[in-house]
Design goal:
Distance between the termini: 59 Å
Helix content: 40-55%
Largest sheet: 7 strands, mixed
Radius of gyration: 22 Å
Shape: globular
């Protein structure tokens, strides 16, 4: 018989209870989704409200909402007071939609979008075949799917913008861009990261590069920097703009297998000047047994992409070398964002 009194050294809980919390983690994710979708944190930002009042404001069943909020309060997300009144906790602040580091859109996508969670229900398919469960469920790859489903794409874009905002603050705080004259953001989406970098580096010139349908959304972020920013559209599998002495890519390389990732990096190498800098912003997986959000994000890549993956420092060294770069240093810069710096060899 296994001794049930054995404890998890990190939580002081019995191991079976710790494992049970992990097994039922999907319940927590779905409860957080409900709170995020209903905007509960926004409704509580000015002070506590009863579950009855919150239910009226969100047009849901009061008793059911109370049960959701009671469960989340037991986890430190919201705090329950007398007479079923609830208020924000420091953790619940991040479910507000009006703060720069909001995780509201992330919670909505992860918990509420069938196109995201259905592939996780078919995870065994990916383990058996090595192929993405997303393609198996929806009969197409994720990026073409988003291209054909604008509502899903809008939620995905909101989620990515939210995560980029969180990462951008850390990247700007931890990496010194002052030696760079012109920075090209390859696959830079709506330009959120580039805007943060330009804001903190007034002498820097920027070039945003992404697909035509993507860069049309850049105006809100880059219009104020129009005198020192260019927006160029195209595919990084075909080419990237010249004119930069540094090229940055945030969470681009992890979407692709080594062959495609090397092709993207080679396109950057081709137009870069001698000693030009390559800045790849990705998670870097730590050694065996060390905890890492990236090791779970790697499973997301397994299920959602054709060959995408998170990589170790050794694997980034090999990838950089194959594209003609020398990895010079790794600068930790956030929850799942390290600036992996290389120079053109």
């Amino acid at each position: 018989m296994i001794a049930t009194t054995t404890q998890n050294p990190t939580t002081s809980l019995p191991l079976p209870e710790t494992l049970m919390q992990m097994i039922t983690g999907g319940w927590v994710s779905q409860a957080i989704y409900v709170a995020a979708k209903l905007g509960i944190a926004d409704l509580l930002k000015d002070g506590s409200k009863s579950s009855e009042e919150l239910a009226t404001l969100t047009n849901v069943d009061a008793n059911s909402l109370y049960r959701i909020l009671r469960a989340l309060s037991s986890l430190g997300i919201f705090s329950e007071g007398d007479n079923r009144y609830f208020e924000l906790t420091p953790m619940a602040e991040y479910l507000r939609s009006d703060i720069p580091e909001s995780l509201n859109a992330v919670a909505v996508m992860m918990g509420g979008e069938p196109w995201h969670w259905q592939p996780w229900g078919d995870i065994l398919y990916s383990v058996k075949t090595g192929k993405p469960a997303f393609d198996h469920v929806f009969k197409m790859s994720v990026f073409p799917y988003l291209g054909e489903n604008p509502e899903a794409a809008a939620i995905f874009d909101s989620c990515m913008t939210s995560l980029t905002t969180r990462d951008s603050v850390e990247i700007v705080a931890n990496y010194d861009f002052s030696s760079i004259h012109t920075l090209v953001d390859v696959g830079g989406g709506h330009g959120k990261l580039l805007a943060y970098i330009l804001e903190s580096n007034p002498n820097l010139q920027g070039i945003l590069y992404d697909l035509p349908a993507v860069v049309v959304g850049a105006s809100p972020h880059l219009d104020k920097f129009s005198n020192r920013t260019s927006i160029v559209s195209g595919s990084f599998f075909e080419s990237v703009p010249n004119g930069g002495d540094a090229y940055i890519m945030k969470h681009i390389i992890h979407d692709w297998d080594d062959e495609k990732a090397t092709s993207i990096l080679k396109n950057c190498h081709q137009v870069m000047p001698a000693n030009g800098k390559l800045l790849v912003v990705e998670d870097v997986l730590p050694p065996a047994n060390q905890p890492s959000m990236g090791k779970l994000l790697d499973l997301e890549m397994l299920l959602m992409t054709n060959g995408g993956r998170e990589r170790t420092e050794t694997e980034f060294n090999e990838l950089f070398a194959a594209a003609g770069f020398k990895l010079t240093r790794i600068v930790p810069s956030g929850m799942a964002a390290n600036v992996i710096e290389g120079v053109k060899a």
